[in-house]
Design brief:
single chain; mainly beta; Immunoglobulin-like; 5 domains; six-stranded antiparallel sheet; about 5% helix
Length: about 625
């Protein structure tokens, strides 16, 4: 009999036969089938079961099924609402009309179920985003119907039709749960009483469906970049065709062109299929057995082999691992206390490369890597590295030598594999850190739109000259979110406007952190429109029609959000979710009860007195 730890991992490599397991906090034992290899543990789970139609092979019946079990420490455990949020590829599937009765499911005849209807099907099928919701409140009886914990039961029944015929290349299409807690209306069950820190649903199991005919023909055309460090860790991209491979997982190997160098296997976890014509992967370490011995050649050449299913193709002499070398830097002097940028050029740079500034008579100072605006500090080809000098410890009127140390990524605390230095030092000078090092060469000519909401989130385009990939955009001195920053060209940048406390004119700067060149314009911020809390449909009244619209919006149905979404935040908690629907229902059932009155602004229009992130 095997003993498992109290806190089970999400995944483990074991073999079990005729085993039973019991989860902490639960009384009953669970049987587990014999398994060897990778297994996943889930006490409560939801899965997608797929059954092809008996008469039409293009139709697939999909059932949301699972088991949600009660914790031992909570008697009378039950659920008062759930969301099912699924996503599918709208180019490969269409959702067929949904049976509104849902007989045989856990919610049949209970509460209110919000399903896609004929009028909302086109929108669902255009986006591939499907939302279904259930609440315990029954509009017919004005009572609450709770769902009890269930075992291997059906939650929802749907049907999809494939848009691909047998003449299309075979592919595997996913229908998946959106379960990320940070997403909008993720799949979730809401118990009346939960155990703090314990998820209600432990696992979600998506469905993969085979569609079309034969696998697409596999073809390799190019690789970018074609060089990188011996230690690997950089990301490269393959271009070609047929990479989707019918949903099969690709395998990538690097084969040495000559010599007895080892074949390198790319980890599956490091492979990302971007589309049928593009794959990115993380290059493996080429150093081989330790202790490390650097190759005598300046580079080692490899073929790239890609295989999907029973197809394999080769891109010959495609990639070179380069030994470390130091070519130079882009500056001749450093201001002692300003943290100036230094762009180091050479070969073989990686995340285990360390740049130091060596001043005679002093301990070496590390110049830290500096990534910005979505661009990594180290280029993917391993040939440039942007670092920033320390702001303390550099003596004025002295000089510093640039030293590059290459560490073993498997032993970062060990001695360097290689140490390189430039023969010419950098002068350490005094300087005004607020002064620009070069003339301002960045010009912003146009900003669209010229005005945005103080709530933030508006897409903004900047047009001008002198923009670079290094550029940063700052609003009132704060850098905008890099995840939304896009460098289109030397004349075009775009970003998402951040929120602002008050309306008015904000200073917008475009700055190159390397040259310190910058351009400046103004961005106008405006207040969001006034609203009545609970007035979701915008008629300046709070009625049953607002309940209907809010229910539809929360569960992905038809309708438009109000101009100021704070109107739908009926419980004024700064979030739009099931709680707002229940708060609105509670108010409408007892409109004269002072305790059920909605928060201001109500019943007349006004602004939100509570600071939150909702105000669109």
């Amino acid at each position: 009999m095997a003993e498992l730890p109290a806190e089970l991992p999400e995944r483990d490599e074991i073999r079990l036969e005729n085993a039973r397991i019991r989860f902490a906090g639960f009384e009953s034992w669970r049987s587990i089938e014999a398994s060897e290899g990778s297994i996943q543990y889930a006490n409560s789970y939801l899965k997608l079961d797929v059954v092809p139609d008996a008469e039409d092979p293009a139709v697939f019946h999909v059932a949301v099924r699972g088991s949600l079990r009660a914790p031992a420490e909570i008697p009378g455990y039950s659920f008062n609402a759930y969301n099912i949020h699924l996503q599918f590829n709208p180019e490969q599937f269409e959702l067929l009309p949904v049976d509104q009765e849902q007989e045989g499911t856990i919610a049949a005849g209970l509460g209110e179920l919000f399903l896609p209807v004929e009028s909302t099907l086109p929108d669902t099928n255009s986006t591939g985003d499907l939302r279904v919701g259930w609440i315990s409140f029954n509009f017919s009886t004005l009572q609450s119907d709770l769902i009890e914990p269930f075992e291997d039961a059906t939650v929802l029944e749907l049907s999809f039709r494939s848009k691909l015929d047998d003449t299309a290349g075979r592919t595997f299409s996913q229908i998946s749960f959106l379960s990320d807690p940070g997403a909008e209306q993720p799949t979730a069950f809401f118990p009346e009483q939960a155990v703090p820190g314990r998820p209600v649903i432990d696992a979600f199991f998506d469905a993969s469906i085979s569609l079309g005919g034969d696998l697409p023909v596999l073809e390799l055309l190019s690789l970018s970049p074609v060089t990188g460090p011996l230690t690997g860790g950089n990301e490269v991209r393959l271009s070609g065709d047929g990479f989707d491979g019918g949903g099969l997982v690709p395998a990538i190997r690097l084969l040495p062109v000559e010599g007895d160098t080892d074949i390198l296997e790319v980890s599956v976890a490091g492979i990302t299929v971007l589309n049928k014509g593009s794959i990115s992967f993380v290059v493996p370490d080429s150093l081989g057995a330790r202790p490390v011995t650097l190759p005598a050649e300046s580079s080692v050449l490899y073929d790239i082999e890609l295989s999907i299913g029973d197809q394999a193709v080769l891109l010959p002499e495609a990639y070179s691992f380069e030994t470390p070398s130091l070519g130079g830097v882009d500056v001749s002097s450093l201001r002692a206390t300003c943290g100036d940028f230094i762009e180091v050029s050479g070969t073989g740079f990686s995340r285990s490369t360390v740049v130091k500034l060596q001043v005679d008579g002093f301990e070496p100072l590390v110049a830290a890597p500096f990534g910005r605006s979505g661009r990594p500090a180290i280029s993917n080809d391993g040939r440039t590295m942007l670092v920033r000098a320390p702001t303390e410890g550099l003596p004025v009127l002295d000089e510093a030598f640039v030293v590059v140390e290459v560490l073993d990524p498997l032993e970062l605390a060990g001695a360097p594999i290689e140490s390189l230095s430039l023969p010419t030092p950098l002068d350490i000078i005094e300087g005004d850190c607020d002064a620009a090092v070069v003339p301002n060469m960045i010009v912003v000519n146009l900003i669209q739109p010229g005005s945005v909401s103080i709530c933030g989130g508006n897409h903004v385009d900047l047009f001008g000259n002198g923009f670079t990939e290094r550029c940063e955009v700052l609003v009132d001195g704060a850098m905008v979110d890099r995840s939304g920053f896009v460098f289109h060209s030397g004349q075009h940048l775009s970003f998402f406007a951040p929120s602002r406390v008050s309306a008015g004119q904000a200073t917008l700067q475009v700055r190159d952190p390397l040259t310190l060149a910058q351009g400046e314009v103004f961005l106008n911020y405006q207040d969001p429109p006034m609203f009545v809390r609970g007035d979701v449909d915008g008629d300046r009244q709070v009625t049953d029609s607002d309940v209907t619209l809010l229910s539809s919006l929360l569960f992905g149905g038809a309708g438009l959000w109000p101009d100021n979404r704070d109107a739908a935040d009926t419980n004024d908690d700064g979030q739009l979710n099931f709680g707002d629907l229940m708060r609105l229902l509670s108010h409408l059932q007892n409109p004269d009860d002072p305790g059920e009155m909605l928060a201001a602004p109500f019943p007349v229009p006004g602004s939100d007195p509570t600071e939150d992130s909702i105000c669109e």
